[in-house]
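Sorry, can you check?
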Amino acid sequence: MSSTVKRKQFSLEEKKNIISEVDKGLKKGEVAKKYGISPSTLSTILKDRESILKQVQTSVFDPSRKRMRKAQFEDVDTAVYKWFQDVRSRNVPLTGPLIREKALEFAKMLEVENFQASVGWLNRFRERYGVLSKCISGEASDVPMNSVNEWRNGEVAALIKKYNPDDVFNADEAGVFFQLEPKRTLAQKGDKCVGGKASKQRITVLFCCNKSGTEKRKFLIIGKSAKPRCFKNCKSLPCIYKFNKKAWMTQIIFNDWLIDFDTEMEKKKRKILLLIDNCTPYNAPPKLDNIRVEYFPPNCTAVLQPLDQGIIRAVKSRYRTFLLRQILCDLEKNIQRKCNVKEAIEWICGAWDDISQSTITNWWKHATTTKDANSVSEVAEYDESNTHDIQQSELEQIWSTAKKKTSLPDDVNLEDYLGADDVSTCYELTEVDIVQSIKQR
């Protein structure tokens, strides 16, 4: 009498766990027995290792799902999920009713008939994309230290240890008001760079470096003009240059940068880990063969991200030194002029080159080490201990001279000057953008 054995169906997450068990050194026979599968099934899973791990990494679906069935109203689901990612990347709390209301708006914009944003639809949407209840109802906090320490001690931290420090990278962008004079500092504070003078003199810079401090990659500059006049007769730049009307980081620019990075790593036969924040341009990376992308938890980058904590600040401090030096030189010669984009690029390059390997490794160590959950002020304390070096002293001296020569009021200080361009640099999606991207597929 024959018996029919029901084939066991595994989710991507379960397949990943099976692969992990074998990688840890457990015998294949023991793994097969543990998961109740035949040796041939185990061999098939291991043979598809790269494909499975890549699917876990890039799939929009929850890895715990066994079936990857798509939605009946796929365009509406896709639009809502893009909107959801954008809103959550800014740590805005969401509720179920709000998501359902937004789904109806997208259905109308996409001219989809017979769509009902019912509670059942919401539950299926949440299941399809692995949206947890806590993600759509929790309140934002300044720095959730529990999330910080969970990240430092969790899966990503364990993953970092599997890579050589040379192969663990962090990328982050920053705005730079490249012409900023001390007297304009107060006017710039809080400017969102949507328009006006602040927008005209801002560029966005994407920095990337590895954990060991041995590799500071060529930075990416995003300006407003395709061909600034100052680029005339310039054969090459020490950076990658891109542009758009608002000098913002966009998903297209970031993904192009990622693809080039991945191609370079493939040529060098390197597999690397890239840690980034979860802002809108970063949250839909292309399929990559040599770069594994992992995200910092929302609202935690000020504590967890090495570049955001102190490395970029050190670059900006050095850049301001170059700029103030030029401003003072022009004052002595009675010359009135503005720094141009080409000069700004050269000075940023010089500032980036001046960042020492020890500065980078110190910030990486500080970012990945578990701290006292009751102390968030450690970041500032650590910053003070690492920036008061020879370069910082030089900046303070130049600032003191500039303050006297430009008759700055007492309420303008060096900290204001250094932090005046801490503004949004990422393009925020609109509903129209989302709908257009879906219609153009």
Remarks:
- The first strand starts at residue 168 and ends at 177.
- Strands lie at 168-177, 202-210, 220-223, 240-243, 272-276, 291-295.
- Residues 306-332 form the longest helix (27 residues).
